[in-house]
Amino acid sequence: MASDSTTPHGGADGTPFLMPKSLPFKYRVSYTYQSRSELIEYTSPYEVVLNLRGFRDSDTVTYVNVEDGKDAFTLTVDRFKFMVAQLVVNSSADEIEALYVRLLLTNHYSPSIPDRGYLKGLDRHLRKQLAKVTKGVDHYLYGDILYLKYRRLSINHLRAVILDKSDIQLYHINMPSTMPNWWLFRDAMKLSIPDTIIRVYTFSPVSEDNIINTPIPGIPQKIIRIINNLIK
Fold first, then answer.
1. 162 vs 166: CA distance, rounded Å
2. Residue 102 belongs to what H/E stretch?
């Protein structure tokens, strides 16, 4: 079994291990409960991150190769936390936003998460902060129908702006086709709004659309603080 020094810095496709398109590993955590050694296995690193608060730093995370079922390498939980923190800090703003949405999806759907409310509470606070940024959002209400054109490039800001509206029966959302992580948007919205009442359109931006390319102030830092709360 390899030591920590052989830990890879990327997934099978070369992307950071928290954001690969295909996950080559399963993750087996060895921990102590009431003086007994226990094992629990997760199918994604997002599940491990969301459960870290329940483990001690001296517990271990073993990466298990999905193809042959063999142990690839083992980290202490403390080392795993450090690697997560290091990778997030070195990721781009778009990668951090995508990671955050994947954590939200895992928190909602995975049966392995015992405390879904913790991340949901942190997310509600984040959304309240982001919804205060209104520049780049054109919208109007027709009865209980919301028409919104989005002229920024943040999936999490758009989600916050939409969810800040109340008593809406039908959503028409138009967003730039150049928005990073746009393919995650509908899945993210399903966490809070039925898919049957949201219509999503994309437009190819021209200069007259006045797309605001500058990042929403503080978004990466706010998400990093949430992730730090998950792994501390």
1. 9
2. helix 93-109
Q: Of 45, 148, 60, 152, which is closest to residue 102 (Cα–Cα)?
A: 45
**And the tokens for 179?**
């928005």
Q: What pTM was computed for the model?
A: 0.88
DSSP code at position 73: E
Distance CA 30, CA 59 (A): 6
CA distance 49 to 87: 13
- Residue spans of the domains in the chain: they are 4-125+224-231, 130-219
Please name the fold of domain 130-219.
Answer: Transcription Regulator spoIIAA (3.30.750)
Question: Are 146 and 139 contacting, i.e. CB atoms less than 8 angstroms apart?
Answer: yes
H or E element that contains 60 = strand 60-65
Mean pLDDT by 10 residues, the chain (232 residues): 34 40 82 90 95 96 93 94 93 93 96 96 96 94 95 96 94 95 93 94 95 88 96 90
CA-to-CA distance for 97 and 138, rounded, in angstroms?
A: 22
